[in-house]
Amino acid sequence: MKVYEYEGFPNPARVRMALAELGLMDQVEFISVDVTKGHHKKPEFVAKNPFPAVPVLELEDGTNIAECTAITEYLDNLNGGPSNLTGTSAKKRAIIHMMQKRAESALLDAVAAYFHHATPGLGPDVEDYQNEDWGLHQRKKAVKGMHYFDSVLKTQPFVAGNEYSMADITAYAGMLFADAAGIDTPQECTALNAWRKKVAERN
Prior knowledge:
Radius of gyration: 17 Å
Helix content: 40-55%
Shape: flat
CATH class of the largest domain: Mainly Alpha
Strand content: 5-15%
CATH topology of the largest domain: Glutathione S-transferase Yfyf (Class Pi), Chain A, domain 2
Distance between the termini: 22 Å
Number of helices: 7
């Protein structure tokens, strides 16, 4: 398998965390796509993912799978899964997918919108449209999301319940992106901060 990515960016980090959790790192060849130089918009990459973004998982038969959730689902079922990462029962899978979506919408995507719209982002050669007001609104949404996940983590050890899952991976990537974008975690979010330390030790 090949993973097209840009190491250090939040969504590629999600796939790397899933691979590490599943013990599959040695089964993947990582290929760098420099999104800071717009390489993800070149025709040869758009042919792999017409919604040009990394990561993309390329299988041995030439199939290309984009979107972190889809990639994680595939990886989690390679060895007769699924595991706790995507859920081992109908109820667990539903809750994990629910919290995964919330982690994307309320945290990771909100931080991304702030970064791309209200900061220089990846620069004028890559950022073809910016709306600062929208970006600042999304910054507030991200902070609100941090408070939400703090309230969740006050009642359970992980984002989707008692077990570490891809919802934790997404929320953790969102927090790392917030750090890079200059969005501070509110000090009062003590449960969120404790969870971050626990997940960091896992990775």
